[in-house]
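hey can u check if this looks right to u? its 383 residues, i copy pasted from the old doc so theres a chance i mangled smth
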Amino acid sequence: MACVLDELVSKATDMGTLRVLVADDRPDVLEALRLLLKGAGYQTETADSPGALLRAPETRRFDLILMDLNYTRDTTSGQEGLDVLTRLQALESPPPVVVMTAWGNVDLAVEAMRRGACDFIQKPWDNARLLSTVRKQAGAARRARSELELARHIQQKLFPRKTKCLETIDYSGQCIPAREIGGDYYDFLDLGAGVLGLILADVSGKGIAAALLMANLQGSLRSQSDLALSHPSALMSAVNKLFYESTPPEQYATLFFGRYDDHTRSLRYINCGHEPPLLLRSSGAVERLPATALPLGMFGEWSSEENSLELAPGDTLLLFSDGVTEAGLDCGREFGEQPLLALLAASQNEKIDAVVERIVGAVHNYSVAGQTDDFTVVGVRGR
């Protein structure tokens, strides 16, 4: 299996020309580097100022940035370049950065590496060394990104692909990770004739670590799902024990679990510290399903309460992660709960998968500065 994955990653790495962004305030230097890299087979873009350098990665993906540390404001200390380097590292999935300076010294090199640079080149450069450095760092970055893309593909396979048909409800879900992979998780469990398990969880953290914990949580839930046939609390207690024993103390997961019975229209649920789902009744009344237990994985000793409700025709239940309501928070504004209620009210005659799609699109469009957190939506509509 490992050999197959290595082969897939190798092929993905070899596909496409490596893209390099070169930044310097001297036109002659930019042109010399552009021609050198073009001759070596790289696709090159140039930036002649710190502002242009910072804007380029926001709209285009690069395998490497080759940047000068000294600009017109301060041509000797490298401070302006170091400040730009710090801002580059704050970007979502920043490319590797190789820095250059004609005033190189050990202290400046160390500081550049401390701020996130992966290598250091002094002007005037040696062509062979520069190309060797670019090839090494850009290739490693492309390989790492290919591995993440492969991991994203695998993670997407973990989400439910097929759903069982029920007579009294329609249901649908979507998960959009902020990075290549994330820690949000939803699932639909077949618990027997006419019985369905509904899950939406949010693992603490982001990226690879959260994705690994998400896979751990999913495995625990699916392996113990028979316990939900009698009481959801028995399933959650078993999952909490497994999750607590296999994760670091600071890691946890909020989770909503519901056991829906198609014969009685009843939903028995446990909310483990998750965002309260919204229930919009066909009459227009709104109900919220608050927490009935602590998040999973925080404590070895854990208990919960079960609540229940009935889903009548036209009722809509919406589960969502905090990435939905907190979208836009980095810009000083939150998407919040009211737009969700408005979207639900305006789409009472639509199919639930279209409603989920519309909500996901609205949240994505609201995040004008870019998505910073995973967001997941699960909708259930009585019929």
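The first helix runs from residue 2 to 14.
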